[in-house]
């Protein structure tokens, strides 16, 4: 049990059978490469995710190795292609679709959505536009490139944002994850500094209306019977903001898996997460981050196509809450990836 995590009740367990191991694992016929590391700000987290995936797959007998996404990767894929790749890269390399496009060129199957859907989910303003068009609630927002921000006059732009969206606000990079560059702005005087901090991580800032409520994350997996939502994980950061330190430092966050929601609200949250996953054209797995407001209404904040797999990451917590074996679940996802290529 991870410190700070509540114990799931039996009634909340994921209502599916435990994934069965593909026969190829038992006979040692498959070879898998886990990609982790990269050059993004999230490299350390990615390496931790990769090692966790590596260990989990080895527990079910998979022949697996950990590789970085460097200039030796492509030649090795061409000379000795694995049966499948698991992408544990965070940040642009693992989530903007470019690596997935290269894997497609090499005819190497991989777990997760395709390049097009990955690009869409990676760009938060684009993803929010698709969600809004699909009737899925997401907080009002404006996306501001740094150049336009400067050209139009920072003071005038910030005043208009405050007038239009109100306070408090959430400021975060339009592309990126792990809470890097994100800040809650509760008064207008703090907005300029938040914008500067955001621009340190991305050339475009996403400023959205802050919705108070319960932070939850819903992991969506497809084990062969269509996408299904794992139990929602409730996130309670000690300082009230789920930033980088709160995500990856033991003791700074408490997780409740499953989230402390009524059955009605939990079902509504799961349905909203599934709708977001489907609207963006995702497959295999994703993590949908939401806020549940005081009236029990869920609002989608963002969708992650390469969820963290560390000891404090939300998808593994949801898998545990569902009563599933992490290694077997990953094995089933790998088998689906291999099957798409046959």
From TrEMBL:
Binds 2 magnesium or manganese ions per subunit. Its cofactor is Mg(2+); Mn(2+). PROSITE patterns: ATP_GRASP (PS50975). One of its GO terms (biological process) is regulation of cell shape. Its EC number is 6.3.2.4. Residues 128-335 form the ATP-grasp domain. The gene is ddl. It catalyses: 2 D-alanine + ATP = D-alanyl-D-alanine + ADP + phosphate + H(+). NCBIfam families: PRK01372.1. Mg(2+) 1 binds at residues 289, 302. This is D-alanine--D-alanine ligase. Keywords: ATP-binding, Cell shape, Cell wall biogenesis/degradation, Cytoplasm, Ligase, Magnesium, Manganese, Metal-binding, Nucleotide-binding, Peptidoglycan synthesis. Cell wall formation. PANTHER family: D-ALANINE--D-ALANINE LIGASE, D-ALANINE--D-ALANINE LIGASE B. It is an enzyme of class 6 (ligase). InterPro entries: ATP-grasp (IPR011761), ATP_grasp_subdomain_1 (IPR013815), D_ala_D_ala (IPR005905), Dala_Dala_lig_C (IPR011095), Dala_Dala_lig_N (IPR011127), PreATP-grasp_dom_sf (IPR016185). It comes from Micromonospora pisi. It is found in: Cytoplasm.
């Amino acid at each position: 049990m991870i410190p700070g995590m509540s114990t799931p009740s039996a009634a909340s367990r994921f209502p599916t059978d435990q994934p069965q191991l593909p026969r190829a694992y038992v006979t040692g016929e498959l070879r898998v490469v886990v990609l982790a590391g990269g050059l993004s700000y999230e490299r350390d987290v990615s390496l931790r995710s990769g090692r966790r995936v590596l260990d989990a797959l080895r527990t079910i007998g998979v022949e697996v190795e950990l590789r970085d996404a460097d200039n030796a990767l492509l030649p090795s894929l061409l000379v000795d292609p694995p049966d499948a790749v698991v992408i544990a890269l965070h940040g642009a390399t693992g989530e903007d679709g470019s690596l997935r496009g290269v894997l497609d060129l090499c005819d190497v199957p991989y777990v997760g959505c395709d390049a097009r859907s990955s690009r869409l989910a990676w760009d938060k303003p684009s993803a929010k536009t698709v969600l809004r068009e699909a009737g899925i609630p997401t907080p009002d927002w404006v996306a501001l490139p740094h150049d336009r921000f400067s050209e139009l006059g920072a003071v005038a732009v910030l005043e208009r944002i405050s007038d239009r969206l109100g306070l408090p606000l959430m400021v975060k990079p339009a592309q990126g994850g792990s809470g890097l560059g994100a800040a809650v702005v509760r008064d207008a005087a703090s907005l300029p500094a938040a914008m500067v901090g955001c621009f340190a991580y991305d050339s475009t800032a996403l400023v959205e209306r802050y919705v108070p409520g319960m932070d939850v994350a819903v992991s969506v997996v497809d084990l062969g019977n269509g996408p299904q939502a794992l139990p929602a994980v409730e996130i309670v950061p000690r300082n009230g903001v789920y930033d980088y330190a709160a995500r990856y430092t033991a003791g700074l966050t408490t997780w409740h898996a499953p989230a402390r929601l009524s059955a009605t609200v939990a079902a509504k949250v799961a349905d909203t997460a599934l709708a977001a996953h489907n609207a963006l054209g995702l497959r295999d797995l994703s993590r949908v981050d939401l806020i549940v407001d005081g009236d029990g209404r869920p609002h989608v904040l963002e969708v992650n196509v390469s969820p963290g797999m560390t000891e404090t990451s939300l998808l593994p917590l949801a898998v545990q809450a569902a009563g599933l074996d992490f290694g077997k679940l990953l094995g089933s996802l790998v088998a689906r990836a291999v099957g798409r290529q046959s």
